[in-house]
Amino acid sequence: MGLLSRWTGTRIPDGLVTPKPEADLRDALLALNSPDVPYSLREGQQGEKADLVAECHIKRVGVRLKTSMRLVPEKHEVRVIHERWENRSAGNANQQYGRGHAPAVFTQKETVTGPDGRKQRVEVFRFDTQEVTNPLEVTVLRAGWTWRGVFRL
Q: Angle 22-30/130-142 helices, nearest 10 degrees?
């Protein structure tokens, strides 16, 4: 696998897996949708250029993630673009936008007094963006399709 493939987050399935039909892959991806996961998965809308879209909004840290997927049955490939909006201040004064494969971990910490009376920083919240992308990626690879990161759909 080349440097560009690593940079875009491209993953290739094990050669022993026979690619499943597009309809089976679509059903398997949509089956990931449940109240227990931190994202919602839906069919792409008309202007999105995507077949499926996974969205996640973590209000606690001011982050919104969107993973757009286009299925390419001729190549048994899912083309993926990740987008991230961050707003960590009030009034949208410092909003940031990013696109592409960039795993990140968002945490919140508080200062508390420990049992020995000393102050210490304790992690009270943690969110890893791979909680959204890993289940999607694993489902695609198990179906025998390539997970290909792209810069635009």
A: 150
Count structural domains, the chain: 1
Query: How many Cβ atoms from other residues are within 10 Å of residue 103's Cβ?
Result: 11
Q: What does each C-alpha distance from 122 to 83, 108, 117, 125 come to in angstroms?
A: 29, 9, 14, 9
Q: What is the pLDDT of residues 45-60, one digit of tens each?
A: 988 899 999 999 988 8
Q: CA 39: distance to chain centroid?
A: 9
Question: CB under 8 Å, gap of 24 or more: what pairs does 72-77 form?
Answer: 73/21, 73/22, 75/146, 76/19, 76/144, 76/145, 76/146, 77/145, 77/146, 77/148
pLDDT score at 7: 67
Question: Are the beta carbons of 132 and 70 closer than 8 angstroms?
Answer: no
Encode pLDDT of 69-86 as tens digits: 999 999 999 999 999 998
Q: Contact, 61 vs 88, CB < 8 A?
A: yes
Q: What range does the domain containing 70 cover? A: 3-149
